[in-house]
């Protein structure tokens, strides 16, 4: 893949921070990464395909498997609108098949796609097609719900409505996930965490995975309000954790939208800097949910705007250095394996 001057400057910037790998033998399932052709603003319009993923997952840590997370790539350009997202599942399956020709490649063991839950009961037809095209890898969906009244904040790519978690059609769609034993990844902003709590209480049979700590915002009208937001966030996370069908992904906090501005530094974040600024989010979540319902995630390449892959996983490992081997195995491997059934 040709690298233009813009990409070269970025890779040179990212390469400035190199760290010795901590506990390199520890098995890891990375339960949250994307693949795209380079037209995604969150990743700075950089392509991130199998070869890019390989560079990261083979950078020193023992990444034994990964799970692809929907990001509106490879949709069908023709046909009925509701079925177009099935193209993403087929897109990823084809990338996986093509990668088998490489000497070594990332083991993508699960696919989380998108289906519009606002279809209500009709979403079953879409889910069935995902399962058909998924080559046994399709495990569930994410219907991103990030919505904010402020124009400075970009709403999720799925174009959610306000108060979507309370919507009757959305909830009917969620019932179809339960019937098919599929998971639901929840991605929204910090002021919507309580909405998800209500949703989770009403659907205790649905396995819900809470992405990116509920998206604490730090840009636009939320800039400079980290302490105020954090205090409210702590209470909302505590409430959410009371629903035992909800699992927490630990990661996705280094996106530019979170307002830490790592991407504006002369050098990318080090593992110590990630710990200094983010550790209280991680430890509070683990304390609330327990080690049986948490899993570390990379959220790459979105978080790659701020930190390199091997440095991020070093930060995760440093945060729980004093945990038992059994608990580390749960947080880095077992919980992701069990929750997604991979």
Can you describe what's shown?
The chain is an alpha/beta fold and 342 residues long. The chain has a single domain, classed as TIM Barrel (Alpha-Beta Barrel), CATH 3.20.20. It has 10 helices and 8 strands. It has an 8-stranded parallel sheet. Helix 7 packs parallel to helix 8 and helix 8 (271-289) packs across helix 9. The longest helix has 19 residues, at 271-289. It is globular. The mean pLDDT is 95.
In short:
With 342 residues, the protein is an alpha/beta fold.
CATH topology (fold) name? TIM Barrel
Number of strands: 8
Give the CATH level 1 class.
Alpha Beta
CATH 2nd-level architecture: Alpha-Beta Barrel
CA distance, first residue to last residue: 31 Å
User: Would you identify the regions where 5 or more consecutive residues have pLDDT less than 50?
Assistant: none
Characteristics:
alpha/beta, TIM Barrel, eight-stranded parallel sheet, 37% helix, 10 helices, 342 residues
SSE topology sketch:
Elements: H1 5-14, E1 27-33, H2 50-57, E2 62-69, H3 86-99, E3 108-113, H4 123-133, E4 138-142, H5 168-179, E5 183-186, H6 193-202, E6 208-210, H7 226-241, E7 246-250, H8 271-289, E8 294-296, H9 309-319, H10 325-340
Parallel strand pairs: 1-2, 2-3, 3-4, 4-5, 5-6, 6-7, 7-8
């Amino acid at each position: 893949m040709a690298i233009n001057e813009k990409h070269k400057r970025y890779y040179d910037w990212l390469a400035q921070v190199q760290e010795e790998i901590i506990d390199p033998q520890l098995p890891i399932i990375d339960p949250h990464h994307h693949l795209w052709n380079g037209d995604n603003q969150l990743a700075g319009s950089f392509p991130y395909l199998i070869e890019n993923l390989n560079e990261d997952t083979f950078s020193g840590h023992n990444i034994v498997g990964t799970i692809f997370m929907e990001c509106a790539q490879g949709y069908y350009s023709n046909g009925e609108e509701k079925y177009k997202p099935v193209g993403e599942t087929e897109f990823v399956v084809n990338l996986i098949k093509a990668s088998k020709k490489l000497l070594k490649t990332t083991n993508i063991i699960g696919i989380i796609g998108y289906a519009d839950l606002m279809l209500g009961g009709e979403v079953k037809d879409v889910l069935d097609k995902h399962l058909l095209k998924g080559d046994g890898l399709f495990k569930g969906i994410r219907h991103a719900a990030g919505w904010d009244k402020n124009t400075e904040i970009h709403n999720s790519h799925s174009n959610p409505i306000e108060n979507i978690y309370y919507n009757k059609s959305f909830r009917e769609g969620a019932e179809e996930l339960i019937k098919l034993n599929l998971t639901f990844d929840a991605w929204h902003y910090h002021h919507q965490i309580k909405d998800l709590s209500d949703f989770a209480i009403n659907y205790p049979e649905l396995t819900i995975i809470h992405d990116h700590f509920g998206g604490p915002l730090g840009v636009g009208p939320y800039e400079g309000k980290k302490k105020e937001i954090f205090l409210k966030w702590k209470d909302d996370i505590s409430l959410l954790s009371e629903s035992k069908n909800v699992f927490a992904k630990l990661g996705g906090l280094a996106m530019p939208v979170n307002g830490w501005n790592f991407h504006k530094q002369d050098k990318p974040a080090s593992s110590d800097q990630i710990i200094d600024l983010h550790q209280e989010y991680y430890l509070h979540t683990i304390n609330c949910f327990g080690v049986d319902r948490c899993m570390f995630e990379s959220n790459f390449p979105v978080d790659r705007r701020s930190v390199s892959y091997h440095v991020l996983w070093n930060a995760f490992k440093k945060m729980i250095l004093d945990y038992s081997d059994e608990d580390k195995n749960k947080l880095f491997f077992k919980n992701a394996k069990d929750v997604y059934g991979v």
